[in-house]
Write a structure and sequence with these properties.
By secondary structure, this protein is mainly alpha-helical. It has a single domain, classed as Rhopdopsin 7-helix transmembrane proteins (Up-down Bundle), CATH 1.20.1070. It contains eleven helices and no strands. The protein is globular and about 70 Å long.
Length: 327
């Protein structure tokens, strides 16, 4: 089940009271909305520039991070501003066409993000469980093809989901932005976009950390050997384990942001007005993940820190800057 937005009807008396009682708070909310959206766009744009520009970063794992950053950028541009304004105004003010675009982009960004995180889990599992097979078979080109397929599948799937349920032809009332999904479609959507990928993510990352722990034990046992080959293997294993742990942090944060919304959507009936704000908070948590991801990269990934330094000092405009060392 993807993000479901309630039927929002304009409440003029409520908005009038809000503005008259606390105009300053109203302005602050709009400034905060602009700041959050801008931070999301800028943060993910820096990730996209870093991975795309520097050739050293053209690795399978980073291509998946690039895909996640693109979906987060899409969220920051076309979903987050409208959703936050919707929460402030309590009604839809952007017209029916933008409502359809908003709902479709929301579906697309959601499904791409979830499936990309699942692909990240698969990538780390293969890198640790079968390192020789991974180095021979999993190339950046292969991951690019898989990533494009992920986006294309989500595009066709979400278009079909909305079209079958008549969301492109429904006439909407002014002040409302809704979409309709029948019970069967909702159940299929729940399986494809939430239960199956999240179950896969949890299972694979459980195996990843078990394998990483086993590798750590083996490395400690081999520390008595000082041969060159052993040293190379030790560095390689440490690198893979570190990548698994860092991407594990990314996945855990993603799940923590994702689960509150889906728990609300499954447990709380949408007719229950008393829990309206609980659902709104869950939706905000879901979208805030798009802001958190670049912060995780900045805190834990040295390559992102180095690339940021090169970007902010305008060295990326130098000749052959794409060949600079950022690792």
């Amino acid at each position: 089940m993807e993000i479901e937005f309630l039927e929002h009807q304009c409440l003029p008396h409520r908005n009038t009271n809000w503005r008259s009682v606390s105009l300053s708070v109203y302005v602050v909310l709009y400034v905060a909305t602009a700041a959050v959206s801008l931070l999301t766009v800028c943060g993910n744009l820096l990730v996209i520039i870093s991975v795309s520009h520097f050739k050293q970063l053209h690795t399978p794992a980073n291509i998946l991070i690039l895909s996640l950053a693109v979906s987060d950028l899409l969220t920051g541009v076309a979903v987050m501003p409208f959703q936050l304004i919707l929460l402030i105004e309590s009604c839809w003010t952007s017209g029916p066409v933008m409502c359809v675009v908003f709902n479709f982009v929301t579906f697309q960004a959601t499904s791409v993000s979830v499936h990309t995180v699942a692909l990240i889990a698969i990538d780390r599992f293969l890198a640790l469980s079968s390192p020789f097979l991974y180095s021979q078979k999993i190339s950046p080109t292969v991951i690019c093809i898989v990533t494009l397929f992920n986006w294309l599948f989500s595009l066709i799937y979400n278009f079909t989901l909305m079209f079958v349920n008549g969301n492109f032809t429904n006439v909407m009332c002014p002040g409302k932005c809704v979409y309709v999904i029948d019970g069967v479609s909702s159940f299929i959507d729940l399986l494809i976009v939430f239960l199956m990928p999240c179950t896969l993510i949890i299972i694979l990352y459980t195996h990843v950390f078990v394998i990483a722990k086993r590798h750590a034990t083996a490395i400690r046992a081999l520390q008595v050997h000082n041969s060159t080959g052993s040293s190379k293997n030790r560095v390689s294993d440490k690198s893979e384990r570190k990548a698994a742990i860092l991407l594990g942090i990314l996945v855990i944060v993603f799940l923590l942001c994702l689960l509150p919304y889906y728990i609300c959507s499954l447990v709380i009936p949408y007719s229950n007005a008393d829990l309206f704000y609980v659902r709104n908070v869950a939706v905000i948590f879901f979208f805030l993940n798009s802001i958190i991801n670049p912060i995780i990269y900045a805190l834990f990934y040295p390559w992102f820190q180095k690339s940021l330094k090169l970007i902010f000092t305008f060295k990326v405009f130098n000749k052959d800057s794409s060949l600079m060392n950022v690792l």
